Amino acid sequence: MSELPLSDLCSICHIQPPKYRCPRCNTRTCSLPCTRRHKLWSQCSGIRDPAAYLRRNELATEAAFDRDFNFITGIERSIERAGRDAENRGINVGEKAGYAPGNGGNGNGKRKRGQGGGGGGVTKGEMGFMRRVESAGVKVVRAPKGMSRNRSNGSRWLAKNQCLIWTVEWIMGDGEKKMRNCTETSTIADSHDRVLPRPKEDNAEQTQTGEKPEQELEPSPDAAQDPASTTDNTPQPTNAPDIPDTQPETTDTLQPTPHRDVYFYLHRPRTTTKQPVLIPLSPKMSITAALRGHTVLEFPTIYALPDSPDTLQAQEDPKYLLEEDYLRTHQSPDDTSEDAAEEDTQLPPGAIDLGGVDEKKVLEVLQKDLFEPSAAA
């Protein structure tokens, strides 16, 4: 060991023969402490420089090929790791990076080969959901990508059962919030009972009195009609589609009644008041009938309050505002735009309406005023 020259020993301790070589600067060390000491003394990162110069005879070697392969796979791993990190943090960078589902991506940050772009960044399942929502008469306002409400939305189109699955946010009278998915044909009362199951004592009393459970009132998914129509004696076809002409009448005739001592209200988003604007609902209405003709922000929000609509209207300083009171005291954006268009057509005070004046006669008068002084001069 003592006969070896210093050039053949560890460049740090000069005691042991070297075992390791630094990928960055090719410094040879004998152990991990010497390697750490070398990085500290030389301020070396220990990472191979992919742009380091190589002679021509060094390019066609196995070591050079391995270096290039490791460099390319390292870039791929970094991109995948960054994509997973962005997905976990709720940041959508797919469209900017070219990995959006509509641009040939599969939704997890990887690009599929042989697929063209163009799709608007909307997946096939989302297109089916939006078509069904549009046919049901519901307007869905999308929240920005990555927001908590957008990430919490589990609403989807279930192609196997041909029905919509809605994510419903339930807000109780004490402010407690709960989220649960339910089918579009479920009644409001049935969906509420699944979020807050009945106590065992209530179930026993219901069985003794012979009342039918709420689930028996739910229609089949193929019919997709309002449960209130099941009270008719006429049989309903199982494969009949939605009938938009009869649904609004059924929705209007259903009056909000208490269910387990609570009243149900649909929240109206994007209003100009600080108070939540509520729409009274009947517990016998289906989710589709309750949402028809209304707007939801990503998914519906339903309030379960102990106060009836009359009680909310009678309060002097109400915490909630009914939709009819809101429309009576506040102007909707559509009405505002129409009034603005009418105001544009109206003349300001002191102006004269020249709609009935002949343009040719006005032009002749102006020409006479211009040319007569020149002729006199």
Structure report:
The chain is α/β, with parallel strands linked by helices and 377 residues long. The chain folds into three domains: 1-49, no CATH class; 65-116, no CATH class; 124-336, no CATH class. It is built from 14 helices and eleven strands. Strands 4, 5, 6, 7, 8, 10 and 11 form a seven-stranded mixed sheet that branches. A two-stranded antiparallel sheet has the order 1-2. Mean pLDDT is 75; it is low at 95-120, 212-253 and 336-345.
Task: Describe the secondary structure blueprint for this structure.
Layout: E1 20-21, E2 28-29, H1 32-42, H2 56-59, H3 62-88, H4 94-97, H5 124-135, E3 139-141, H6 148-152, E4 156-158, E5 163-172, E6 177-183, H7 188-195, H8 200-209, H9 247-253, E7 263-268, E8 277-281, H10 287-291, E9 295-297, E10 301-305, H11 309-314, E11 321-322, H12 323-329, H13 333-345, H14 359-376
Parallel strand pairs: 3-9, 5-10, 8-11
Antiparallel strand pairs: 1-2, 4-5, 5-6, 7-8, 7-10
Throw out a few tags for this protein.
377 residues; alpha/beta; 3 domains; 7-stranded mixed β-sheet; 11 strands; Znf_HIT; ubl conjugation; zinc; Box C/D snoRNA protein 1; zinc-finger
For the residues shown, what is the average pLDDT? 75
- Outline the low-pLDDT stretches: 95-120, 212-253, 336-345
**Run of helices and strands:** EEHHHHHEHEEEHHHEEHEEHEHHH
Number of helices: 14
Strand content: 5-15%
GO biological process, one term: snoRNA localization
Subunit structure: Interacts with FBL, SNU13, NOP58, NUFIP1, RUVBL1, RUVBL2 and TAF9. Interacts (via HIT-type zinc finger) with the RUVBL1/RUVBL2 complex in the presence of ADP.
Keywords: Isopeptide bond, Metal-binding, Phosphoprotein, Ribosome biogenesis, Ubl conjugation, Zinc, Zinc-finger
GO molecular function: zinc ion binding
